[in-house]
């Protein structure tokens, strides 16, 4: 089983996109190519039946395209985050505006809480909330409380000692059907034990950030071993070129808020 989505919020990359935060050494992103890849991503969601709200770029927020970090939508309610990177805090206003009248906003993460949506992995059997450099224990605790109010089970997973993970969902994704894609080399945390694990080879770790949308799994293009594993498990795939988002540490899930 997997949640069925009917809508998504996206935000177009702006001309300032290359000034966002990154640890990647792959070079500056090409703006026109990023726009084309973003358009292809939007078309893929539309082809799966989702109605899209595409927010215009705001040049003050180069990372604003990574809209997933600004809100959590779960149990029919939204929680607006307080992103861990101070430069990204203002991104929440446009996302909160887009949700207004569409999904009831049940809460906001408040100081001293910090939380990025990329640290929140939803599943049919509970929500995992990662504590990372972007999400602190206070933010994770506030979100867990909001989720419990809407009868969502939440478990907090401290992954601060795991190297190379910006967010929890950099290394794991829920595939539906009780299955979790997990990048090879991640510790076998007790929070993962209730899931059947689908290992993403270490050389293809970027592809561990994938998204189940209705009957398909969206995965980054160019990771053939993981694609073959999913194919063998019976998943129907949509492969999307993510090269220009990878250069800014962005994964596939962070380009949309799905609900
Ligand atoms: C950042 O470092 O905040 C952005 N350049 C990338 C955010 C990616 N977000 C995500 O994976 N949820």
What does it look like?
- With 259 residues, the protein is an alpha/beta fold.
- It has one domain (7-258): L-arginine/glycine Amidinotransferase, Chain A, CATH 3.75.10.
- Helices cover 21% and strands 25% of the residues.
- The protein has 6 helices and 15 strands.
- The chain has helices at 31-47, 92-99, 137-149, 168-171, 224-232, 243-246; strands at 7-11, 51-55, 71-74, 77-80, 105-108, 120-121, 127-131, 154-158, 172-176, 179-183, 196-200, 211-213, 216-220, 236-240, 257-258.
- The protein has a 3-stranded mixed beta sheet with strand order 2-1-15, sandwiched between helices. The protein has a 3-stranded mixed beta sheet with strand order 3-4-5, sandwiched between helices.
- A hairpin with a 2-residue loop joins β12 (211-213) and β13 (216-220).
- Bound molecules: citrulline.
- The site of citrulline (CIR) has 17 residues, from loops.
């Amino acid at each position: 089983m997997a949640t069925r989505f009917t809508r998504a919020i996206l935000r177009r990359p702006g001309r300032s996109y290359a000034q966002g935060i990154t640890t990647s050494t792959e070079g500056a992103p090409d703006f026109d190519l990023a726009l084309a890849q973003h358009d292809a991503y939007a078309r893929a969601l539309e082809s799966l039946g989702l109605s899209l709200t595409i927010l215009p770029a705001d040049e003050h927020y180069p990372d604003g395209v990574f809209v997933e970090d600004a809100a959590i939508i779960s149990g029919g309610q939204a929680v607006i985050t307080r992103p861990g990177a101070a430069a990204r805090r203002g991104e929440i206003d446009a996302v909160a505006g887009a949700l207004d009248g569409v999904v009831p906003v049940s809460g906001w993460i408040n100081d001293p809480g910090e939380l990025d949506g990329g640290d929140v992995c939803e599943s049919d059997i509970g929500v995992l909330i990662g504590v990372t450099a972007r999400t602190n224990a206070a933010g994770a605790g506030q979100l867990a409380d909001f989720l419990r109010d809407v009868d969502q089970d939440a478990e907090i997973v401290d992954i601060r000692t795991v190297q190379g993970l910006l967010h929890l969902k950099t290394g794991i994704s829920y595939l539906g059907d009780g299955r979790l894609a997990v990048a090879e080399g991640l510790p076998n945390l007790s929070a993962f034990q209730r899931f059947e694990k689908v290992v993403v080879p270490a050389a293809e770790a970027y592809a561990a950030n994938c998204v189940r949308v209705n009957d398909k799994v969206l995965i980054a293009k160019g990771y053939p071993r993981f694609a073959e594993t999913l194919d063998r498990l019976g998943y129907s795939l949509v492969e999307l070129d993510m090269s220009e988002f990878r250069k800014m540490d962005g994964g596939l899930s962070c380009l949309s808020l799905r609900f």
